[in-house]
Automatic annotation (TrEMBL):
This is Amino acid ABC transporter permease. SUPFAM superfamilies: MetI-like (SSF161098). Its main location: membrane. One of its GO terms (cellular component) is ATP-binding cassette (ABC) transporter complex. It comes from Clostridium estertheticum. The keyword Metal-binding does not apply. Residues 26-214 form the ABC transmembrane type-1 domain. It comes from the Bacteria.
Amino acid sequence: MNLDADTLRILGIVKDSFFPLLVAGVKFTIPVAVISFLLGSILAMVTALARISKYKLLNIISSLYVWIIRGTPLLVQLFILFYGLPAAGITIGPLPAAIIGFTLNVGAYNSEVIRASILSIPKGQWEAASSIGMTHTQSLLRIILPQAARVSVPPLSNSFISLIKDTSLAAAITLAEMFQIAQQITATTYEPLVLYCEVAFIYLMFCTILTIIQQRIEKKLERYVAR
């Protein structure tokens, strides 16, 4: 089959750009997402416990944090960290700014997932733990959180998959992640449709693999759920 010059050129662009895009995804997109999700999950746990705490000050501070982060766009938060803070004498590099921004965002949204999971456990579980002499902390760590973890796995997994896609926003603060590399290649090849479809395909591959892993984890956890 004979191909015209334009088709051959486009195929050459796809072939030459695929590996640099994949490397950027493995080198920046995935690590940034994993680090941000782990740090954000820790922050989410602390925030969730603060929101259900009997201490009013902790409740107010954590609620204010969740309100601000959930009420403002992630892109704006990244711009404040990278472009806005230098005006106040605080300069943060693209990678730290991206990790901080994604961590704060994940922490706020996932805290609501964790809080709802904890509150979904029947109060009788607390009472049963208390009746055998467990303290509030022991009840939380040994009885409540293990059950809440199983409930929260699906929404937290979805949050991580969404975060993989959200890392593309880091291109706006000059982080050399996958979408930023695609923009750079587009600037030299003048083929935005081809490059952006290609990077979308790579994101789709990453998210498909994660979705399969998520389904397997959920299937394993189903064995521990009472029917």
